[in-house]
Please model this.
Amino acid sequence: MVRAQPLARLLLLCLTHLSPPGACDVAGGAGSVNSLPAAGSARLAPSFDAATPKNVTALVGKSAYLSCRVRNLGNRTVSWIRHRDLHILTVGGYTYTSDQRFQASHSPHTDDWTLQIKWAQQRDAGVYECQVSTQPVRSFFVTLHVVDCDEIYQRMFSDAVPSARILGGPDLHVDMGSTINLTCLIQFSPEPPAYVFWYHEDEQVISYDSARGGVSVVTEKGAATTSYLLVQDAAPADSGRYSCAPSNADLASVRVHVLNGERPAAMQTGSAGLSDSSRAIALLLVASLLHARLRSALLAS
Model:
């Protein structure tokens, strides 16, 4: 039955870790009444509030609150019964179980009779009966669901495929002598990867203790794992494809270009266009100058 509960709302319940009375209610509706009042006595006979939730969800280790609203109770008594073993838990404000986690409460001048279950466990899940001591008895049934936050997290991400990506790709340009700084983000994984390997060209593992030196990796594990690759004093030989390969996801790649004073192709195209424009302007200036000198010479003659 827990599968039918909205996962987003359950997750919010896990994040807030709050369980005030009624806050755990996921779905509401009328309970079942064993018998109806006799004609002409409906106003005096006890009745249940049809708006009272009949499905309640609580977190493991938190308090669960089961509500029963009885109108026109009069001198009758309200009892709570656990259907799993037909054990009478409370009668009125008294508790009839050695399990001190169960407690009945009733606010004066209200119709609310609440059963509190402290430190709820999954074994507490099931149907509970709020019973009024009429002849015959009238009953309202509440179903308690007890869920574990870890179970909710796993279900939230069970359909998501772990993935890795290197930020800033697919091409990165760095100046020679600067530091290559690559960031790999691993997401949608039910647990952090056991390891994250970095590769450079030809699927060769980057050697951190090689003669080159200046290579370091920092990996921060969590709900989203981030791995940083730093290659100091970049040289043209450091150009090429870099790949991030976590243990639980497909690898992600990016191509690094180490520039030796040159510019990327897109920038070269732009600069080439600028050079052509400058050349055209220079030619116009020379032509204008020659024209002015020729005119001066003709006027002088």
Q: What stands out?
A: The chain is about 20% helix and 35% strand.
